[in-house]
Prior knowledge:
The chain is of the alpha/beta class and about 120 residues long. It is built from 3 helices and 7 strands; from the N terminus they run βαββββαββα. Strands 6-5-4-3-2-1-7 form a 7-stranded mixed beta sheet. Strand 1, helix 1 and strand 2 form a beta-alpha-beta unit.
Amino acid sequence: MLHSNRKWCVSPVDxxxxxxxxxxxxxxxxxxxxxIGCYLWLNDSSSPDGAQEFAVVKVLDSxxxxxxxxxxxxxxxxxxALQLILATLNGQDDRTPWRKPVNPALxxxxxxxxxxxxx
Length: 119
Ligand SMILES: [Zn+2]
């Protein structure tokens, strides 16, 4: 379930390896999102104290996104996280039966500035 009142500050990431490190080594504030190509990983954790959970979202076009997965990276080590990210990038999650259309509010770092989650 994607937090519907959240605005994510999305930053591009260069590689699956870099993303796996970011998702397993750092606790991010609730408005953090990462992007590789047409895939987004949006922090969907309900509180900064729990295990970090990220929604995996595929951008179809500027108005349409599909949530493919919800992954608790807080429980993954680097190897496992990398495996999951590569599977997503290879399109293996594109047809999960539980995928659903979502409409997340996405912002660049310049647009986002500060919100209650990262203030
Ligand atoms: Zn914020």
